[in-house]
Structure prediction request, 177 residues.
Amino acid sequence: MAPLSAGSALSVIASGGSAVREWPPVAWLRRLGLKGIVALIAGGMVAWMLPWVGYLGNTLPSIALAHNWAAAWIGLDLGIAAFAAATVWLIRRHDPRSALTAVAGAALLAMDSWFDICTSAPGAGKMLAIGLGVGLNLPLAAGAVWFAVRTLGRALAVAQKDVGAAGDRSQTPVPTR
Prediction:
């Protein structure tokens, strides 16, 4: 048997020296790259979630008893506070990753509004949930997204400027004596 090169469909396992067929998707995933893999996973999530939502809509009861109701709400609100604190800390360090924590916090604020409105009792409770969602949570979430877009835009501009400046320096002739 001829020796096999690294990266071929067949490779030699060090233990025992027997030839084993490489799992074909490994090479395919390498060609796909990180962005392609993430897009593939996200597309799979969409393909799964749409029928799943239909199934849930037809099978879930309209009323349910939650045994850990307080813990669920406290956990969500602590998550919002944690992402807000992380955003403040990163902003104080002038770290553009503050955009990531701001977007995560915005998502939690939107979820908080959604569940407040969907789980509140009709009447004054529902009106309070709608008022807090529309008047507080959603504007805060929109502001966080605006901040993130602005911060990432600035970080990208700085990175592109740095790359351009490095490119210009590399083409500058080196002075000789």
